[in-house]
Write a structure and sequence with these properties.
Blueprint (H helix, E strand, L loop, with lengths): L11 E6 L6 H12 L10 H8 L4 E6 L1 H7 L2 H14 L5 H12 L6 H10 L4 E5 L1
Helix pairs in contact: 4-5
């Protein structure tokens, strides 16, 4: 199958390039460019990212995924949760504090792991980490 083309089953192939970003907003820009070229809005939240995947069917290749695993790892995830706690409403501070505590204790997911889990939760998508 050719990259970024459709076949008769309407399956596509898309490439997220980890060398194009080093933080979560950069990731959102990358997936917006790759998966929503014709839209006039961009993904800006984890829920928004999850939502756009319902319209995608096929294979998503995450190039330089090891770089992304490091970039979207412990430090950035800790900062992500701390910022939500500082911001307060509308976030569930108790839940976010628990996620932060789990992360610090070595039991929580990093942003990279959360993004991979979101991708893998979609039956219509095959994720390939490269």
């Amino acid at each position: 199958m050719e990259s970024n083309t459709s076949n008769k089953n309407n399956k596509r192939s898309a490439v997220i390039n980890g060398s194009h970003f080093s933080d979560l907003s950069g990731f959102y820009d990358e997936v917006s460019d790759v998966l929503m070229k014709d839209e006039d809005w961009k993904v800006g939240t984890l829920d928004g990212f999850d939502d756009i995947l319902y319209g995608f069917q096929g294979e998503i290749i995450w190039k330089d995924s090891q770089k992304s695993r490091e970039d979207l790892g412990f430090n950035l995830t800790k900062e992500f949760y701390e910022n939500k706690i500082k911001q307060g409403k509308p976030f569930n501070i108790k839940l976010i504090q628990q996620k932060l505590d789990d992360l610090i204790d070595g039991n929580g997911q990093t942003l990279f792991e959360i993004l991979v889990e979101i991708l893998e939760s979609h039956q219509n998508i095959t994720l390939i980490l490269r």
